[in-house]
Amino acid sequence: MSLSNYIATKKKDRSLLLMTHTVVGYPSLNANWQMLEGMQAAGVDLVELQMPFSEPIADGPVFNRANQAALAQGIHWDDYFALMARAAKAFPFRLLFMGYYNNVFRLGHETFCRRLAEAGGQGFIIADLPPDQCDELNLFARKYELDPIHMMTPVNSPARLKEIARDAAGFVYCVARKGVTGRATALDTGLRDYIARCRAATTLPLGMGFGIRSADDVRQLKGLVDLAIVGTACLDVWERDGRDGYVKFLQSLMDATR
How far is 79 from 73, CA to CA, in rounded Å? Predict the structure, then answer.
């Protein structure tokens, strides 16, 4: 089942779905597994597994630190795909690759797509790769039945939004604001206008992330987008409140989608 069909099916029961995130290898692979168990317990719909990279330019200080720590522990592709394959067999939510293009380039477009598909991934988000520069990668994505998730931003013109949407599949990731992940985002009239421009550019479901930090934020997205994306706030809670607090926080996010 494609991601867009999966989202449509899930939305028969809830107007808003939830995608969460973990940096593979931080604070450890065992901790990643506990996070994934917590996501399953809460009923999360989709999960981004981030491949660590030395210069994660779209990420704020929390994820930058997590990326550096995971790399310092020697996390590499075999670890990444092993965790994804194990998770794909154990959990019902859909799994996406999230990361940066240099890692994908070094592995090779076809090898990346083949291994991602073999591990049970449904698609990929590559934060620093412009959609109009990934023709070859998209060819292999289609070959291996993966969805390339493209990102729209508030500074994109209507024409550019249509270009971004042209080869997107699964859903479109709407970046809530300029800047990096982690900082709070004001859910105001300007954001609503931006979402309307994104809707006009594509028929795919829309997800929104960057600065979605609380159940109240998620609740305000109901009726605006199809998917709330929460990343940094989850890791903040894990580090501050441990596993139990993490599960409670995820449950509060899920409750806000209903």
Answer: 11
Residue 59 is a catalytic residue:
yes
The structure tokens listed for 243 are 């596993």
Q: Which of 13, 37, 48, 217 is catalytic?
A: 48
- Chain segment 135-176, per-residue pLDDT in tens: 999 999 999 999 999 999 999 999 999 999 999 999 999 998
Biggest alpha carbon distance in the chain? 46
Contact 100, 126 (CB under 8 A): yes
Question: Which one from 45, 59, 79, 147 is the annotated catalytic residue?
Answer: 59
Domain harbouring 51, CATH code: 3.20.20.70
**What is the arrangement of strands in the sheet containing 227-229, beginning at the earlier edge strand?**
147-148, 123-126, 94-99, 46-50, 17-23, 227-229, 206-209, 172-175, 151-152
- 74 sits in the region (left: phi over 0; alpha: psi -120 to 50; else beta) called left
CA distance 233 to 133: 31
Any catalytic annotation for residue 217?
no
Q: Specify the pLDDT at position 1.
A: 76
Summarize pLDDT for 62-87 with one digit per residue, the tens: 777 888 888 888 999 999 999 999 99
Segments of the chain scoring below 70 in pLDDT: 56-59, 177-189
Per the structure, the complete domain to which residue 177 belongs is given by 3-256
d(CA 30, CA 65): 18
Domain count, the chain: 1
